[in-house]
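Per reviewer request, we include the raw input and output of the structure prediction for the construct analysed in the revised manuscript.
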Amino acid sequence: GPSSPHSLETLYQSADCSDANDALIVLIHLLMLESGYIPQGTEAKALSMPEKWKLSGVYKLQYMHPLCEGSSATLTCVPLGNLIVVNATLKINNEIRSVKRLQLLPESFICKEKLGENVANIYKDLQKLSRLFKDQLVYPLLAFTRQALNLPDVFGLVVL
């Protein structure tokens, strides 16, 4: 799980985070990677943030999934007050569909005052976020994608 501090640390160092929102997006990216998603549109080394992940206050992450060939997923994460709103959209045959929307409170998972410190001190409740994010976003997104591609549902398998 995201308790693999090494990968989180590597990713965090590469990201040059300036606030809690940045730090949360790093975590979201790691959770997507853990779920088998592969970053798109970049020669990304396995553990660095994709280029242009952070543009003018909005975060954009693009992925493909080996179980969902012919589609790509985009997470657009928009700061709204003290929340981050994550919009997951799906592109299938050049048609874009909005799939899921999830609101997260960065300060539930990020200790703002520790941002300059050791990664171990910055993040909290990782298991909780991992479960929430995968149940509320990753699994529905995968299931929806497989359905849209007329592929058998792997939902049960993914969860095991």
